[in-house]
Amino acid sequence: MTAEFPPSEASRVVKRISEILIERDETLAVSEAACGGLISSYLVSIPGASEWFHGGIMVYSLKSRLKLSGWNEQEIHDYTGPSVDVALRLARNLKFELGATYTLSETGYASRSPMLKPAESEQAVGSVYYGVSGPNEDVSATYNTDSEDRCHNMQQFAIHGLKFLLKQLEKIGSFSEAEQVHEPKEPDSKKPKIDKT
Fold it and tell me: What domains, with CATH codes, occur in the chain?
């Protein structure tokens, strides 16, 4: 993990995100878990971020999701770990609460977790799930760093999350195999219908 802050790679992406949002008079909010607030800190490192950044939440514990993300007791009880569905639910809830044009959410495994069985840890560690909820569609993606280094993973989760958001803002090319388009739904909707692209 580089000591440079923000990393030059993140700065370039955030600068472009800022330009697009200002030009379109649109706004952004962020829900973070595994990144620990890095996405938000990268975003506000750009002068003028207050013009388009509504803010964000850091929902690290299940209790915080109950209080800050509109989850009910049953959803907390049924929670089995980070997933595409969880990322989308976080993005949709925050969009509803803060009224941003776009919301970006992430949830993943930056390092080994008590929730993971030993057989699952090797595959899950380094995995992150993203959700972007926008005015016309909701999109999800997955990414794996192939690393078990916690700090490295946190930084890479944040950078790749910002790149994923930028791609949606620019609509560059077609969706990759790791991305899925979802029908936009209200935050209290049931499991979303998924169309593979």
Answer: 8-196 (3.90.950.20)
